[in-house]
Amino acid sequence: MDNSQRVNQADDLSDKGLENVIRRADLRPTQQRIALAHLLFSQGNRHITAEILHGEALDAGVKISLATIYNNLHQFTEAGLLREVVVDASKSYFDTNTEPHHHFFFNEEQRLEDIPSGSIRVENIPDIPEDCEISNVDVIIRLDRR
Ligand SMILES: [Zn+2]
Asked: Are strands 83-88 and 91-95 parallel, antiparallel or unpaired?
C-alpha cells in the first residue's frame, strides 16, 4: 500500500495544514472534510468508528449525516490517510496510524489498542496462490477481562 499520503507527525494540523493534507490526498478540501480531519488527526493516534466520529462532529457543531461520515472515512482510507480495521462483520474502526502494526481488542470496552510492529512474528504462513502477493498481515488479539 502506498502510504505517501498519510498524515505525519510533522504535518501542520491547523485548518490550513489539514487543507493541504486533504489536497495532497487528491480530495477537495471542503469545510466538512477539514472539520472531520481536525477531529480525526489533532488528537494523536486514534481508532474511531463512524458512529463515534458522527457524535463528535455533531458535538462540534458540524451538521453531517452518518452516511456522509462513512463516505468521507472511506475516501480518507482510499487516499491512505486512514487504515480500516475490521473487527467483525458489523464493526469497523478507522485507524489514524497507517504504519504496519497489530492490535489488542478489548471485548468489553470495544476498544482497540496498538501493538507495535515487530513485537509479533507471524510464522508458517501457508503457500499463497502463485499469482498473489501478501499485501498485509493483520493480527487482532481479542481480550476478555478476567
Ligand atoms: Zn492501530
From this structure: antiparallel
Query: What is the reported pTM?
Result: 0.84
28 C-alpha to center of ligand 1: Å? Answer: 26
Collapsed DSSP state (helix, strand, coil) of residue 114? strand
The rounded Å distance from CA 115 to ligand 1 centre is: 7
pLDDT range class, residue 5, cuts 50, 70, 90: low
The rounded Å distance from CA 104 to ligand 1 centre is 9
Q: Choose between 124 and 9: higher pLDDT.
A: 124
Between CA 33 and CA 36 the distance in angstroms is 5
Query: At CA 91, angle to CA 129 and CA 100, rounded to 5?
Result: 50
Q: How far is the CA of 130 from the centre of ligand 1 (A)?
A: 30
